[in-house]
Amino acid sequence: MKNSFLRIASYIAITIIMVYGYLIAKGFSDWELLSSFEPLLIPMLSVGLFLSIYVHILLHEGGHFLFGKLSGYRLVSFQIRHFKYSQSDHRLHHIQTASPMLAGQCLMAPPKGDYAELPYRAYLLGGVLTNALTGAALYSSAYLMELKVGSLFVLFSLVPVWIALSNLLPKAQNDGALVKEASRSLHARELLFRQLEMAQLIEDKVPFTDFPDAYFACLRDPQYQKSFLVDYFYMVAYVRALGKLNFEEADSLLQTFSDNRPVKESVYWPIYLMESLFCDALFGRIGTAEEKYSQIQAQPVLKRYWSANNRIRAAYAFFCHADIEAAKNLLGKGPTAAEDSDQDSDNSVELLLYRWLNSYFEH
User: Fold this and answer.
1) pTM of the prediction?
2) CB neighbours of 322 closer than 8 A, spacing ≥ 6?
3) Collapsed DSSP state (helix, strand, coil) of residue 77
4) What share of the chain is helix, strand, coil (3-state, %, to 5)?
5) Alpha-carbon gap, residue 246 to 237, rounded angstroms
6) Rounded to 10 degrees, what is the CA torsion of 144, 145, 149, 154?
7) Is the Cβ–Cβ distance between 193 and 108 less than 8 Å?
8) Residue 108 host element (H or E)
9) For the chain, which has fewer Cβ within 10 Å, the N-terminal or C-terminal residue?
């Protein structure tokens, strides 16, 4: 709570300094004019500022790409909201079930070499630097213009500055947090680079069951449990176990994850809550599953995940409430995640799970 307050306060302080500094530098003295403006200007500016966010998100991810390429990284995928370009097939895909918390992402595979020697700061902070430079350029240009036009440039320079700050100041797993974490130890950097390597395997449609066991050795090593970067490996290992229909292993992984990590602080908390409910339903922990269902329904972001996953909803309806018709109806709508994946059907874990659930209703 304290960190969030300080973060918001810093945004407000910088905004006031930028606006006030510009007006003073331009010799503005009639402060009463600030309260007299065209009413239609507010919605027009609001729409313009909102649309500019997507422009600066694109520039942010482009900064990751540019500085990643300069550091020897190779493009894996480039995503803005529901649209993702995949380097593996050179196609633009529409992702229906994109995370509501994901505005954009530029995934790149690291260069080959010793993890201890590989660069990472330029790639991770390339987006922040691009936004900061864009904001500085817009703000500086305002001083070359007359007050009315220049004020618009100042206003629109705030968006890239805010985006730069929101990614630079460490929070969750943003760019600043990743750099801070990777700088702490070689173990953290190993997790970062292996995570990027696994992301490339996923994008190349390598079946999860074919992932090297060496990638998951960190889950048994206490040294890696200190880093939030290990959370990703729990999630991938969980999907890998589901791909083998090894539900005992999958359930054990989620329980180990919650025992060893502050799960509620993880960016994977929504996924964990959904999948642990799925396992609770499968193993007859009905009371626990219903408690998690109540948590999901109480939070809008979690409800989006819930609505987008018919497989988990069907398992909950069937195993917890013995509602066969509801389960069959949900399964009949098809695996949305599998449709988004563009993978061969035999390699889709989601589709495999749908087939497994459907087998309960085959006669």
Assistant:
1) 0.87
2) none
3) strand
4) 70, 5, 25
5) 11
6) 20
7) no
8) strand 104-109
9) C
